[in-house]
Write a structure and sequence with these properties.
The complex is a heterodimer. Chain A has helices at residues 3-9, 12-33, 47-67, 71-75, 77-94, 114-131, 140-157, 163-170, 173-178, 183-202, 204-221, 230-254, 257-266, 273-282, 285-297, 308-311, 323-355, 360-384, 402-420, 422-425, and strands at residues 96-98, 101-106, 111-112. Chain A is mostly helical. Chain A has two domains: 3-182 and 291-425, no CATH class; 190-280, no CATH class. In chain A, a hairpin with a 4-residue loop joins strand 2 (101-106) and strand 3. Chain B folds into three domains: 32-58 and 147-228, Penicillin-binding protein 2a (Domain 2), CATH 3.90.1310.10; 64-145, Penicillin-binding protein 2a (Domain 2), CATH 3.90.1310; 232-464 and 476-610, Beta-lactamase, CATH 3.40.710.10. In chain B, a hairpin with a 2-residue loop joins strand 14 and strand 15. In chain B, helix 10 (232-241) packs antiparallel against helix 21 and helix 13 (308-319) runs parallel beside helix 15. The chains are: A mainly alpha, B alpha+beta. The interface between A and B is large, with 44 and 35 residues. Chain B: It is a single-pass membrane protein. Chain B: Residues 46-207 form the Penicillin-binding protein dimerisation domain. Chain B: GO terms for molecular function: penicillin binding; peptidoglycan L,D-transpeptidase activity.
């Protein structure tokens, strides 16, 4: 394969969006971690200097990926997947613990986080399994296998504990839905989540009354011609109410206090103003500081390197998970919306690129990439702006961290590599 | 559907994020965030508050250092509590409760343990302070009063409250602000402008350098000193004369409208509202609802003016051409209104303007008043003219002084009587009392003094004011240097002034003559009523006196109003004469008068209505 052909076939729009996001991310890491304005940006003792180094390493990753034979990724997907599972299991024996989570291998110069690697391999493995000529998505057994491919790494990551990363794997269900997984599964999932949240907020009694009213209304306003199956509907109603009852039990008896506190804060469950204040100061502290920092940016922001809260280090973990708050403070609403729009364009472009694949494996892998990145983006920004409870997940291309940046790059560029090949062997 | 699922998720998520961000950054955003930002700390540099001097450059108000004992609870080491309490002059319980309060506020931040130690207490404490870790002394500036008088004129300062903070963004909690008097009126002049330094803080509250390289920092602007028009000597003397009496005195310089003295009795030492005992003293003064020491009677009391008001009716009648100075009215030891007789104690007989004024004949002025109204076809029109003339003397409305408080008094007009009695349900007999300054007319002592100044100037006055000069420049608000002309022509004043001069020579105040000074004055004896526990009772008459001196080229015009002092000449006349002599000559020749005034009190009069027993009024006491 000639290099020149590759340059022509690669999707440059995605590459530019990627580069732009990485650049904005680094600017904000620079502002967040700057302590001595005199120092060079190539000073590798500083965090922004290190991040610059990681960006250069990512360039190496890109070059490597682009020059590897395309079929390599498909052919060895299963092996990659199994090896990453082994690596995840190995953490229980040889893992290095950082900040309470045993998620790393200490490679001396570098801490490897296998859960990051496993995102790539799981996406590959899932695409490979689903695109197999013998796999039928309508077959229950095959559905189960697909789900297992997704859940295995998640289950191994959960006890590290790293619920954030584990949660990311669930985004791969989007791939299943795209490929014909019945959509009502998604419907059921949404209903379960809504029931869970509303039960916590209003209590089972009101949920029962609400559902009952809804049912009655359905019967009253239905068209004469439509027939509603009465038995399944009543069973569903009973199940919903039972579920609602069980939510209370789970919440009170299985959840720990720290979990309950997060929900209390998120859904404004705590009515006692003093207790709420207490929760805000402890569990909600990060979110509170990050919201305040964003709010104080106003429309235009305080300007590059002028963020007082950023400078004063008020937002904990600002250069990693809370990097978006620095955008909010220094670049204001203009900056935050720009980033949101860039991300949205980036995702829409990727979806477009995925959809144009003739090769099932390429498309499915593309969907895996989009789902994983989108989930990160959704959870991270949702948390930073106070819409979601605190879940530690980095913002792709933005957050400080070599391992994160390189695996996101790997994830993305494998897809771009596949895409560049679509006309050649897309059958 | 399958293909659109993810795209719609992307768009919905983006939309939700942008909505949330606009809520945070557009709707919750407040532009004065620098003040709320925990990362920025403003450090203020307070300029010294400006001094206040009297018209002769005598210091009235200065500053003195005070020493707050501060505590940082976390740094406190075990200490000899009893010894410490002894040094601070507080008891152990108070110490423990204050420490607890400080700790509740914050263990890490300083709180005031004992505010405003005097210099003497501080001297004793200073040497031993190093034994008490976690405590330190913070110096601050308090007002110092070089006089124990003029409390209501000077006013006081106190800490800003919630309302001030909301209304004026300049102030920060804990700062001081002028509350009343000059301190309030000239707050911004005296205060200056504090300087501010913004410091960038990190989350551990450590300084990490200036905010925006100090671009927003400002230097303090010194408060300016001001000179006020009061004459310290006259003011202090007047307050001594008011000992044991309630009432108000205002003395003006007619040729400038400057307030020479503004006295309210009872008063208090302004130093009471400074320092540690401030709040206790304030409570005591504020809740004394019977003698009301914080209520400045010189500008807030609105009694009926009484007989001094007759001089204005004479002027109006002359201006309207309804009488001339020789026009005579007969006094039947009173006069008849409709079928009823109203009394007069001038002695009776034929009265012209001169004797009408110096004997204060009620019948003469009732006749004059009638003539003014008879000139016009209807009472309504007569009243409009009369009100216009009266108001031109600064009565029945705010004068526009530079005092932060005041009252308009009352010149009743048609609308007033229509409200009181109904349209066309009243007639001239209803209003005849106004001819002698009783009835519905009301004026503050300041208005009476100003009216007298207008007579002394023969037809104009300057808006009374308290400011003499600000800082080094002599200029004051130009509205205080514009003469305000009355509606009476200059030529009509001489006969009235002559009558007023004769008040001293032959008339109602002949017993209080001052050798060597020609004084023109007018006595007033004002009936008054009070409602106590729902029962209306008449009290001993108020003693009122207005005067100016010398008759030619007057230097001082004043009004004295003494509650329940009986005859005008008795208390008010005495006090007015003494003040005039003090101001014009600088020394007192009538030591007998002075002694009597300094010693006599009216406390027995003031106690009467509250004794719960029947009492006599208007008793002869000396």
């Amino acid at each position: 394969m000639s290099g020149r052909g590759l340059v022509k076939r690669i999707d440059w729009i995605t590459v530019f969006l990627y580069a732009f996001l990485v650049f904005i991310g680094w600017i904000n890491i620079y502002s967040t971690t700057l302590t001595n304005p005199e120092a060079s940006i190539f000073d590798f003792s500083t965090l922004y200097g290190k991040q610059l180094f990681f960006i250069l390493l990512s360039l190496g990753v890109i070059v490597f990926v682009l020059f590897v034979e395309t079929s390599f990724f498909e052919r060895f997907a299963s092996i990659f997947y199994i090896s990453s599972l082994v690596l995840l299991i190995g953490l229980f024996l040889f893992g290095k613990t950082i900040a309470g989570a045993t998620s790393w291998y200490d490679l001396g110069f570098f801490n490897l986080q296998p859960s990051e690697l496993a995102k790539v391999t799981t996406a590959l493995a899932l695409a490979k399994y689903l695109s197999d000529i013998q796999t039928d998505i309508r077959n229950r057994k095959h559905q189960l296998y697909a789900v297992l491919i997704i859940l295995l790494p998640a289950l191994l990551i959960l006890p590290q504990p790293d619920p954030g990363s584990a949660l990311i794997y669930f985004s791969l269900f989007f791939v299943l839905f795209r490929e014909g997984f019945p959509l009502y599964y998604l419907g059921i999932l949404i209903i379960v989540v809504v029931l869970f949240a509303t039960t916590l907020m209003f209590g089972t009694v009101w949920i029962g009354i609400g559902l009952g009213t809804l049912t009655v209304l359905t019967f009253l306003f239905k068209k004469k011609s439509t027939k509603i199956p009465i038995l399944p509907l009543s069973i569903a109603l009973v199940v919903a109410i039972l579920f609602s009852l069980s939510v209370n039990f789970v919440y009170e008896n299985i959840f720990e206090q720290r979990h309950r506190d997060r929900f209390a804060l998120w859904l404004s469950l705590e009515k006692d103003e003093n207790k709420l204040e207490e929760i805000r100061k402890t569990i909600g502290y990060n979110t509170y500081q990050s919201e305040k920092a964003i709010e104080s940016g106003g429309f235009f922001g305080k300007g590059f390197l002028e963020g007082t809260r950023t400078k004063g280090d008020f937002v904990p973990e600002q250069h990693t998970d809370y990097i978006f708050s620095s955008v909010g403070e220094e670049w204001g609403f203009m900056g935050t919306t720009t980033v949101i729009i860039l991300f949205s364009l980036f995702f829409l472009r990727l979806i477009y690129v995925a959809e144009r694949q003739k090769n099932d494996f390429y498309r499915m892998y593309g969907y895996g990439v989009i789902s994983i990145l989108l989930m990160h983006y959704f959870i991270n920004i949702g948390m930073v702006i106070g819409l979601l409870p605190t879940i530690g997940v980095p913002l792709p291309f933005f957050s400080y961290g070599g391992s994160g940046l390189m695996f996101f790059t790997l994830l993305l560029f494998i897809f771009l590599k596949l895409d560049s090949n679509r006309l050649r062997d897309g059958i | 559907m399958k293909k659109l699922l993810l795209s719609s998720v992307v768009i919905i998520v983006g939309f939700v994020f942008i909505s949330r961000l606009s809520y945070l950054q557009l709707f919750s955003f407040s532009p004065d965030q620098t003040l709320e930002d925990p990362a920025i700390k403003a450090i203020y540099d307070y300029p010294e508050r400006g001094y206040v001097y009297d018209r002769n450059g005598e210091l009235l108000v200065g500053n003195q250092p005070a020493y707050d004992v501060m505590v940082i609870p976390r740094e406190v080491q075990p200490l000899d509590t009893l010894e410490f309490c002894r040094l601070l002059g507080i008891d152990k319980e108070a110490f423990i409760s204050k420490m607890k309060k400080a700790r509740t506020y914050s263990p890490r931040l300083p709180s005031v343990l004992v505010p405003q130690l005097s210099k003497e207490d501080y001297a004793g404490l200073q040497e031993k302070m190093r034994h008490f870790e976690g405590f330190y002394i913070q110096k601050r500036s308090l007002r110092y009063y070089a006089t124990n008088s003029a409390a209501n004129v000077l006013g006081y300062i106190s800490e800003v409250n919630e309302r001030d903070l909301q209304n004026n963004p300049y102030y920060v909690a804990g700062e001081l602000k002028g509350r009343t008097g000059i301190e309030k009126q000239y707050e911004e002049t005296l205060r200056g402008r504090k300087g501010v330094k913004y410091i960038q803080k990190d989350r551990f509250n450590r300084d990490i350098g200036p905010y925006k390289a100090g671009k927003l920092d400002t230097l303090p602007q010194q408060g300016k000193e001001i000179r006020i028009t009061l004459d310290k000597t006259l003011q202090e003397y007047g307050e001594r004369l008011m000992h044991g009496k309630r009432g108000g005195i205002v003395a003006l310089e007619p040729k400038s409208g400057e307030i020479l003295a503004m006295i309210s009795g009872p008063t208090y030492d302004p130093a009471l509202l400074v320092g540690r005992e401030r709040s206790r003293n304030y409570t005591k003064l504020h809740y004394d609802t019977i003698s009301k020491p914080t209520w400045d009677r010189s500008i807030l009391a609105e009694p009926s003016p009484g007989s001094p008001f007759k001089t204005l009716n004479a002027l109006v009648a002359l201006q309207e051409g309804v009488i001339d100075p020789s026009t005579k009215f007969r006094c039947y030891n009173g006069f008849y209104v409709g079928g009823t007789k109203r009394g007069c104690h001038c002695g009776g007989g034929m009265r012209d303007m001169n004797s009408g004024i110096y004997q204060s004949c009620n019948a003469y002025f009732a006749g004059t008043f009638r003539k003014i109204y008879d000139k016009y076809p209807t009472t309504d029109e007569g009243m409009d003219v009369w009100v216009k003339h009266m108001k031109s003397f600064g009565l029945g409305g705010y004068l526009g002084t530079d005092l932060p408080t005041g009252r308009p008094g009352r010149i009743p007009d048609r609308a007033y009587y229509d409200r009181a009695y109904g349209d066309n349900r009243w007639a001239s007999s209803f209003i005849i009392s106004n001819s002698i300054g009783q009835g519905e007319v009301a004026a503050t002592p300041l208005q009476l003094a100003n009216m007298t100044a207008a007579i002394a100037n023969r037809g104009y006055f300057f808006t009374p004011h308290i400011i003499k000069s600000v800082g080094n420049s002599g200029s004051i608000n130009p509205r205080f240097t514009e003469p305000r002309y009355t509606t009476i022509d200059r030529k009509h004043f001489e006969p009235v002034v002559e009558g007023m001069a004769n008040v001293y020579k032959y008339g109602t105040a002949r017993w209080v003559q001052i050798p060597g000074i020609e004084i023109a004055g007018k006595t007033g004896t004002v009936e008054n009523f009070v409602r106590i526990n729902g029962e209306r009772m008449q009290l001993t008459d108020h003693s009122v006196f207005v005067a100016f001196a010398p008759v030619e080229n007057p230097k001082i015009a004043l009004a004295v109003y003494i509650e329940n002092g009986y005859y005008g000449a008795r208390y008010a006349g005495h006090i007015a004469s003494l003040l005039i002599e003090k101001y014009v000559k600088g020394e007192i020749t009538r030591k007998d008068l002075e002694k009597r005034m300094l010693e006599k009190t009216l406390e027995h009069e003031y106690a009467k209505p509250y004794s719960g027993e029947p009492f006599k009024i208007n008793e002869y006491v000396w």
